[in-house]
Each structure stands twice: as C-alpha cells, then as structure tokens.
Amino acid sequence: MSLYRDTGVVLRVQKLGEADRIITLVTRQHGKVRAVAKGVRRTTSRLGARVEPFAHVDVQFYTGRTLDVITQVQTLDAFGAGIVGDYQRYTAACAVLETADRMSAEEGEPVLRLYLLVTGALRALADGTRDPSLVLDAFLLRALAFAGWSPALAECARCGTPGPHRAFSVQAGGSVCPGCKPPGSASPPLEVLRLMAALADGSWEVAERTDEPARREASGLVAALLQWHLERQLRSLPLVERRKL
Length: 245
Prior knowledge:
- By secondary structure, the protein is α+β, with helices and mostly antiparallel strands.
- It folds into 2 domains: 3-80, CATH 2.40.50.140; 130-239, no CATH class.
- The chain contains 6 helices and 7 strands.
- It has a 5-stranded mixed beta barrel. A two-stranded antiparallel sheet has the order 6-7.
- Helix 1 runs antiparallel to helix 2 (112-127), helix 3 runs parallel beside helix 6 and helix 4 packs across helix 6.
- The protein is elongated, with a radius of gyration of 20 Å.
- The termini are far apart.
- The mean pLDDT is 91.
C-alpha cells in the first residue's frame, strides 16, 4: 500500500454508494485529487465534518486502483464557519471553488499557484474584512493570469500600443486601441480598467475607493473573460450577490 500526504482545499463532494463520498481537492503538491472518503455519511464518522467544501485540510491518502482513498484528515482552517452564514460570502466562495475545479482539469498536474490563490481568497472571505465581490474578482483575474489568460489593461491586446484605451473586447483579450477595435467592443470608463488592474496587482487601497457602478461593470467584464476562456458558464457565478459593504 502506497501512502502519501498533502494539504488541500475541498472543492466538491459527491455521494458514492450508501455511506461513502468522492472528495475533490486542489492540493499543494499533487494538483487536483479525487479520492474516496469511506463511511463519511454515517453519523458515527469522525471524518465527515472535516471533508466538506471550503475546508483546508492536511490529508493522508493511499493509492487505489481507480481512486485514491482518504485515511486521515486534520483540519488546518475551517473557512466554512466564516462563510456559510453570509449569502454574499457564500456565493462568492462557491464561485471560487468552481473556478478552481475547472482550471485544474488534469488530475495530478501541479497547480501550486492556484492552490495558494484559493486558500487566500477563502481566508479573505471568511475574515469578512473586504467586499466579497472585490475578493472574488481579484481571485478570478489572478486565476486567469495563472492559466495564461491575463487580460491586457494598460496596452492594446492586439498591437501592444500603450494605453489606457477606452475600448475593451473580451474576444481580443482586453483593452484595444481605436485601430484594432473590433465591432461590438465595450467602452468602459477608465475607472473600471483601473479597478481591474488594482485587483490583479493587489492594490486594495485603490480598489476599495471605487464606487458601486465601477465595481459592477468590472465584475461583468471579469465574468465575461472567464466564461469566454473556459468556453462554458459557471453555474455558481449568476448566483453571486453583488453589493457594496
């Protein structure tokens, strides 16, 4: 029997048989891992509460024929306690988990940066000190950068001409100059582009000075970019409640 340990965040759980669950985690060393937690749906299980979504855990696995099996779990951070009681934080956190699940499609492929982004976003949401919408959009922009899809915000996405530019094209990959502007491009205020750049860079003082209309428009552009690159809509994203704290 081959044993290994890793730390990870629970992204998703699925029922298996009468008492088991398949747990999907994004881990520090092994990327996405799908493993069976045996007997966790029984009321006597000691592991059940430790392998729920949003949990940051230290896990021991042993390698199975098709799916690995979870043998030990130790809670590192119970992020769910600070998330599930607030609808805005909960829906934002669900979008974080679903995005991480989609962006770590290949099991076993190392995704250390994505793992760190997920734990950072969940910690910020659980603390409740920042606007959940800003935390979510910052996570999504950095996740896009992790995947190699970072939008152009300070230069033209097509020719590289320094900006700022008033036109924005999701299909082109961000801001576009007048000469490269494709039909149907959006024309967001410059404040929206500054907000997106601040979220991508972690400039929270700049981001938190923006008003509600700018935040809503930036959220719409970020969601459109994400769904364009993933080629499908996230189920959790339309449920996210957008309101300024």
